[in-house]
Amino acid sequence: MCQLLGMNCNVPTDICFSFSGFQARGGGTDVHSDGWGIAFFEGKGTRLFLDPQPSATSPVAELVRHYPIRSKNVIAHIRKATQGAVGLENTHPFMRELWGRYWIFAHNGNLLDFAPPLDGSFIPVGLTDSERAFCWLLQELRHRFGGQAPERTDLFDALHQLTLEVTQHGEFNFLLSNGDCLFAHASTKLSHIVRQAPFARAHLKDQDVTVDFSDVTSPNDRVAVIATLPLTDNETWTDMPPGTLWWFEEGAAVKTLPTRPGPIKKPA
Amino acid sequence: MCQLLGMNCNVPTDICFSFSGFQARGGGTDVHSDGWGIAFFEGKGTRLFLDPQPSATSPVAELVRHYPIRSKNVIAHIRKATQGAVGLENTHPFMRELWGRYWIFAHNGNLLDFAPPLDGSFIPVGLTDSERAFCWLLQELRHRFGGQAPERTDLFDALHQLTLEVTQHGEFNFLLSNGDCLFAHASTKLSHIVRQAPFARAHLKDQDVTVDFSDVTSPNDRVAVIATLPLTDNETWTDMPPGTLWWFEEGAAVKTLPTRPGPIKKPA
């Protein structure tokens, strides 16, 4: 399996601290050594860094850890290959353009017998179930809403319906962003934390690194960090119940919808 | 205006030497300081590094200069903004997916009154004439050939017809690649060199750096380098006549077609 890391903020924020801990899991403190990638939105533009090498030893990961790129939406992924060989074309996150915006997608899980018809508008370049699911999601969104981006509420509802279909095929934890919102699906395992004033100190689980967020933030900053497993050992992370789709915007959870039968906890 | 750099090879080759000279022109030895970018194909995958900072001082450019990424097709661009503000979304090269392959495009020039109808299949994210032209090219290619990639000869002929239309709107020097071939349009200014055995020493124009290619190559290697202006001062570069579209593959010019009236020189 793989690990996911996402960040959604109300002001452009760098992810150097969280990425330090996450990077270590790619062949250092954990086994996800089949490549890694990270995408940063800066306005409507995106920077996508991909490396089929383990993140723990990747020169590109070193750059990302030390070069503070300020972004309101970030998605990162470290890979333990299940479907598709180790190679750049199978490395997450994936990027496509829809409605004049870039969309970024990363997946943790494994989909079985998921081979929906693709009409040619978005075709996978690699061989992963993940990229296939991403292409299908975008195809279906365009099919529903045509050439014009919908209101965000309608977008979230459509994404919810589509997620219900894909999730029948297996584990489908994912992060998806168009630079405005970050959508997160907890299929089996995902947790998050919202940091806001009063800011405190945080200590990484995977490296002996501490940051005092009160030194590097303004009082109105708000940052949601979403990860497969909590990245710090002295903060309270919220488990996202299996079978929940989340919409984050401006550093906060806006809405949650269930994706499997049964009672769903409300966002903290 | 901007500057273009492309490389097309018969074996995966790193571009560190050429990029060193090119990088210096982005705010160092020349004025193209409104951002830069470079895309590497590795098989069907691509790595795209973009930075709205001048390349001469960009930490990402430093990484690219020192991290030998081996690729058969590379496209780089340093920007002097004409249309579209300085910003990540207006930074070349641009990337889209068509027929399950990534396509990379960079442009040097300025197009006036080029506002063709776009059907929604590829929409610019930024505000440059360049990205608009790229989206239109891909839209028209898909329109002609449907869901299936054509034979390369048919692709080149279609690209030629489309280039004839765009070039009526102004300067349209461009590099375009899908990872198999590299297409280069000399609208006003472009030159190239093909390096093959016997390999010799080359010295950069923009930095005092020399490489002896015989030390770093095998006898069957062949590398075509295409640039707005020659990058070395002790080799013979071939000017590509204004009004010629070139198809490079496996490190050699395969075919050339005229894009303006008048006699066209044959590839060297």
Automatic annotation (TrEMBL), chains A, B:
Superkingdom of origin organism: Bacteria
Record keyword rRNA-binding present: no
Gene3D superfamilies for this protein: Glutamine Phosphoribosylpyrophosphate, subunit 1, domain 1
InterPro entries found in the cross-reference section: EgtC-like (IPR026869), GATase_2_dom (IPR017932), Ntn_hydrolases_N (IPR029055)
Name of one Pfam family that matches: GATase_4
Ranges for domain Glutamine amidotransferase type-2: 2-268
Record key words, sorted: Glutamine amidotransferase
PANTHER family, per the entry: GLUTAMINE AMIDOTRANSFERASE, GLUTAMINE AMIDOTRANSFERASE YAFJ-RELATED
Designated name of the protein: Class II glutamine amidotransferase
Protein source organism: Dechloromonas hankyongensis
